[in-house]
Design brief:
By secondary structure, the chain is α+β, with helices and mostly antiparallel strands. It is built from five helices and twelve strands. Helix content is 16%, strand content 30%. The strands form two sheets. Strands 5, 6, 7, 8, 9, 10, 11 and 12 form an eight-stranded antiparallel β-sheet that branches. A four-stranded antiparallel β-sheet has the order 1-2-3-4. A hairpin with a 5-residue loop joins strand 9 and strand 10. Pfam families: DUF8094 (PF26366).
Length: 330
């Protein structure tokens, strides 16, 4: 397992000891939105009694891939953002690095009903290492369920609204329903616009500090290196912009009418050091090469959980946690 850093954290292949720290300023009380009860969505899309067995198999497959540093094997149990991040992580893990095996300990599940049309459910868990809570987004892939998204959080997700059958209520990515501050996709797009070296204030996110703990200029400068004689030096300057990734955005309705949202962003970084030759560490050369000088590029995939409040609550969107991994260099 590669080491945990502030900007390349929380991938389950590496199982960090702690997640990023969300904002800790006490929030004003939220008044729940009064609405009709959720439509009964029938039989759950996954049997809750089988969750433990699913996570046991997931950990077994994960540990097997880790033990041999077999990045191609990750595709047997992961999809989407989780797959992209963890394959990149294994591909950059030193051959002599031993990854410790782990197990999952599930303590809650949010499973939608079949009539909802959902292709995912969420299992909240800790690993045998303790520490952070991981809401695991399990995604339907053919006849299997695979891990599609995860972020280590300091607290469990808010209470999720359920229908008469006990199924979790989902929120469409473009749906504000007239009750949310903004739709999940609009929030993801607004958040991506904040992940830049020159962000403009956005009242949607209030005093968010979590984002800059995950992606920030100071850390990116040291990630992009050049050669000055026989000395490796950081970039002199860095610029970066972000967009919402092509992976699906998924959301659950909270008991108070808000939404807990899982999404991912892509950050394109350009680092410069005039007159210096680009230096890409050996372990990253599986992600790309650059033998030129003066400028290099990097692409980071970041995964997030955010909480969208109800409209007129007076609350901003809260970024609950995130992690970021280098997936391409050049």
């Amino acid at each position: 397992m590669p080491r945990t850093t502030r900007i390349a954290v929380a991938f389950l292949l590496l199982l960090p000891a702690a997640a990023c720290t969300p904002n800790t300023t006490p929030a004003p009380a939220v008044t729940a939105v009064t609405s009709a009860p959720p439509v009964d969505t029938g039989k759950p899309i996954f049997d809750e009694a089988a969750v433990t067995a699913l996570l046991t198999q997931l950990a077994t497959d994960n540990n097997k891939a880790n033990s041999t540093l077999n990045a191609s094997a990750v595709g047997l149990y992961e999809v989407e953002a989780a797959l992209a991040m963890d394959q990149a992580s294994l591909n950059t893990t030193p051959a002599d690095f031993a990854i410790k095996p782990f197990t999952y300990n599930a303590f809650g599940s949010q499973i939608p009903g079949e009539l909802s049309g959902a292709d995912f459910f969420v299992v909240e868990s800790r690993t045998s290492f303790g520490g952070a809570i991981y809401p695991l987004v399990m995604v339907k892939s053919g006849s299997d369920w695979r891990l599609g998204h995860y972020v280590g959080l300091n607290a469990a997700l808010p209470e999720i609204r359920r229908d008469a059958s006990g199924n979790a209520e989902i929120v469409g990515d473009t749906d504000s329903g007239g009750t949310l501050l903004a739709s999940p996709r609009d929030v993801a797009a607004a958040h991506a616009r904040q992940i830049t070296d020159k962000p403009s204030p956005d009242p949607l996110f209030g005093g968010d500090t979590t984002t800059t703990e995950i992606v920030n200029s100071d850390a990116l400068l040291t990630e992009m290196t050049f050669v000055n004689g026989s000395t490796v030096v950081p970039a002199e300057s860095v610029t970066y912009t972000s967009t919402v990734s092509t992976f699906p955005i998924r959301a659950l309705r909270t008991a108070d009418g808000g939404a807990a949202v899982a999404y991912s962003t892509i950050t394109d970084v350009v680092g410069t050091n005039a007159g210096r030759k680009v230096f890409i560490p050996q372990r990253r050369r599986t992600l790309g090469t650059n033998t030129g000088g003066g400028t290099q590029t990097m692409k980071r995939l970041s995964v997030w959980w955010a909480l969208i409040p109800v409209k007129d609550s007076g609350l901003p969107v809260a970024v609950l946690g995130g992690s970021s991994t280098i997936i391409e260099v050049g």
